[in-house]
Design goal:
- By secondary structure, this protein is of the alpha+beta class.
- The protein has one helix and eleven strands.
- The strands form two sheets. It has a six-stranded antiparallel β-sheet, with helices on one face. Strands 4, 5, 7, 8 and 10 form a five-stranded antiparallel β-sheet that branches.
- Strand 7 and strand 8 form a beta hairpin.
- The radius of gyration is 21 Å and the shape is globular.
Amino acid sequence: MRMIKILKKSIAIIGMAALMLFMNFQPAMAKENVTDSVIQEFIEKKEKGLDVYELLDEAGNIIGYYEPYSETNPEPNEGIMPLYSSTINWTIGAGRYKYGTNQYTLSSGDTINVKIEQSRTGKSYLTFQNRDTNSSLRFEKTETDDGWNGTIKLAGINKAVWSFGIENASDNTITYSGTYDL
């Protein structure tokens, strides 16, 4: 009888240890694998000579890539409904930024389709605001003078609640209009 109690306790302890190990390491490994695969995808596209741009955070870390629509990256079929779609018509003053009020849970591996035009030429960036930490993320390599028309693939970001935004880094007020889909 005493051996059965010891055996049950041993099995329970081993089970708890295995569960804790799985819970602590599995999400980190999954994020790492998704991040690695997105970065590998970017490298392969770059090696093929495709028009792709790495997305960097302000510390210079790769957090995904931007790929304009083309023959190899066609616009999504209008018959396919995105999980979420938002239309914007934002007028942003020179040197200012704006974030939408909509909030989305995003993480590595997520894709965002953008089709946004600018009313005038001027340096602009896509940005995101982490609503959990109230920190901002400017995609350094999304600098444009005429808007965005392509796909963003995220990597290396923690799962969090984010809001989409635009930074007007020009000396002029610019109106941005279009859509983004998740």
